[in-house]
Amino acid sequence: MKTRHLFIFTFMLFSSSVFGQKEKKAETVDPDSSGVVSDRFLPTAAPLLLFDDNAKTEKKKAEKKKIKKNIYFGEKTKKGYVRQNIREQTQYQIYNYTTQNRPADPYIRDIHWIDSRDKVIRTKDFDPARGYLLHGPYEREIGEVLVEKGYFYFGTKHGTWLTFDTKTVLQDKLHYSEGWPKDSKVTYYNREQKKIEKLIPIEYDLMEGNFFHFHEDGQVGVVGEYHFGEKVGLWTEYWNVKGKTVRKREIQYQEKPFTKDFTPYIRAEWDKEGNLIYRKEGLASN
User: Fold this and answer.
1) Which end of the chain has the smaller Cβ count within 10 Å, N or C?
2) Long-range CB contacts for residues 78-87, cutoff 8 Å, separation at least 24
3) What is the pLDDT of residue 88?
């Protein structure tokens, strides 16, 4: 009996030691050790219907079906407003929102939603647990003067957007299609087959928003962001590997446009199997 108790005690001691080592090892996993990407929001292939003329025609038909009050683009919405004091002036944002959740479009940079907890409209990191996508008409007023108006479509700017100065003089008139500025440029490997090569977002004749370059088979090749025509943040290149998305190289650009004395640098590189082969010295492995 004593021998049996001694064996159990020894086994428990050994097990706790082994599991403790495993837990400790898990805490120090290097996020750059593998270039294989499992992010479900990352586009793995080019969109098929983006800028499709037939799709636009069907969309316009749906937009005309505004029969009942607070129904926009076929979706029932609710109305709300946010009040803020900015520089001793009162700003109102009057908006409509939908309780229908749609997965965030990985191609669109700005997804507008109302944060019900903090009572603020956000453009990043939509969380359906704490808010709703803007959908339908939107107006922004400073005092009692209208300074901006437009429509949202499941969190993305859609249709014509107008901005005015405080004397109600028109300043800008932009056109969007589900978050994409209509001036955006699309290049194709084969236009008839809609094999997209590049999606280049354009606003005010400058590149503004998320940029995508695809391999000829539709796999994502490069993802990055432009701001005021300048590359910003982390740009990522991907290997053309079937069945999985594997990072090839990350290049770090300035976080804000027109940053002086900043030189872009390669942050890390991986081989086609996802094995890390280079990381810039001095970077934390988290």
Assistant:
1) N
2) 80/114, 82/114, 82/119, 82/120, 82/121, 84/120, 86/142
3) 81
Here the contacts of 214-219 (C-beta below 8 Å, separation 24 or greater) are 214/45, 214/46, 215/240, 216/189, 217/242, 218/45, 218/46, 219/44, 219/45, 219/245
With 0.70 as the threshold, say if the pTM is over it.
no
The pLDDT of residue 167: 83
Tell me the one-letter amino acid at 95.
Y
Residue 160 neighbours by CB under 8 Å, 6+ apart: 150, 151, 173, 174, 175
Contact predicate 199/107, CB 8 Å? yes
Which 3 state secondary structure label does DSSP give 122? strand
Distance CA 42, CA 168 (A): 41
Six-digit token pair at 49?
A: 């219907």
Could you tell me if 253 and 231 are in contact, meaning their C-beta atoms sit under 8 angstroms apart?
Answer: yes
Residues of the chain predicted below pLDDT 50: 1-28, 49, 286
